[in-house]
Amino acid sequence: MPTVEILDGPPEWAGVVYETDEDMVADEIGLTHPRWRGTPVRVERGALYAYRKVEVVGDRHRYRYQGPWHAEEDLAGWDVLVVQEGLESGDPLQLWGRPVRVYAAPPGTARPDPARPVEEQGWQELKAGCLRRRQPGTGSYLQQGLAQRMSEGDPWATEHWQRLAGKHGQAKDAEAELIHDDIRRMLYLARAAMKLRRLRPDAVVTWTSDPPFPATTTYIPVIGNELAALPGMGYPEWVARQDRALLIVHPAFPEEPAEPALGSARVYHAPAGAPVPDPSVVLERQGWMELAATDWRIGWLLHIRTVDI
Predict the structure, then answer these.
(1) Which residue in 33, 78, 91, 169 has its CB near the most CB atoms, within 10 A?
(2) How far apart, in whole angstroms, are the C-alpha atoms of residue 36 and residue 299?
(3) 151-172 per-residue burial string, b: 16 or more CB within 10 A, e: under 16
(4) Helical axes 138-151 vs 158-165, angle rounded to 10°
(5) Backbone angles phi, psi at 126, to 5 degrees
């Protein structure tokens, strides 16, 4: 029987093996990694990519691209790299909120140095079965727009501008794509806060700071168990594990903006039972700490956004 292996990396390139009766078209192919089962971690169009190990040299495992099916580009024979922090831990909780990125490279491309962005080493990101095409100059264009916003006093543009300022050429364009991903994620988190406000108007509090660059802040108390009991709530066992009060802070914008707002959502946490913070006092002085971007509670919020209740 053919052997299909799902990549666990980086840093390890070990594989989980499936044996199939059909040549590269079994049900396992095109599905998410086994360690994602039972979690709401989402992959583009709900599918991963099929690939086969072709060589082992020491601790290095080489893979070749075999799919996905109905792909828009023929990348058969390419090497594949799957990137997600915490994948090797075996703890599904660690996968919450951690982005999954899939890269491909022509045969013979060197294994990437984990200390450098893989895009700078000949690897190209895959999105829904095709290479993620970057328009040359998009990074410089975005940086100019951010500089204009900064000159107007917009505090939300500073962090993104700093990320672009030290990069050049393709690296700048690649960073611009990641920033656009951050902006989309910010919108998703904002909509999750709006949904929680609609579900629990008696418990979830929202306020907006003053112009010209207002921020919307949403206070979310410990409501995991109560939300998990709602009919139609997907993955209730995960929803119930929300055990900290949360704050979502993002640039203020309409629920359905015509253009994406620039900026990133900030998510803070505090022990269970923490009261609504005083907007006039720095959050950290009130016991609130910012969550890491890979924290599973951010994945919990992103999951809430997708649930149709």
Answers:
(1) 78
(2) 13
(3) eeebebbeebbebbeebeeebb
(4) 140
(5) -105, 135
Query: Mind listing the pLDDT tens digit of every residue in the chain (309 residues)?
Result: 233 334 433 333 344 444 433 333 333 334 455 566 666 666 555 455 555 656 555 544 555 666 655 566 777 667 777 777 666 666 777 777 677 777 888 877 877 777 787 878 888 887 766 788 878 899 999 999 999 989 988 888 999 999 999 899 888 998 998 899 889 889 999 999 999 999 999 999 999 998 888 899 999 998 888 888 888 887 888 888 888 999 999 998 765 555 667 888 999 999 988 999 998 899 999 999 999 887 888 888 988 888 877
**How far apart are alpha carbons 187 and 216 in whole angstroms?**
12
Q: 215-220 and 60-65 as β-strands: parallel, antiparallel, unpaired?
A: unpaired
CB 281 within 8 A of CB 261: no
216 forms beta bridges with 208, 250
Of 76, 71, 22, 35, whose CA–CA distance to 54 is shortest? 76
Full-model pTM: 0.78
Q: CA 118 to CA 297: how far, in whole Å? A: 27
Cα-only R_g, the chain: 21
Structure tokens, 228:
């998990």
Tell me the three state secondary structure of residue 53: strand
Residue labelled with tokens 């946490």: 269
Q: What is the DSSP string of 238-268?
A: HHTT--SEEEEEEE---SS-SSPPSS--EEE
Contacts of 301 (CB under 8 A, 6+ apart): 189, 192, 193, 246, 248, 267
Cα 306 from chain centroid (whole Å): 14
Q: How far apart are CA 309 and CA 7, in angstroms?
A: 35
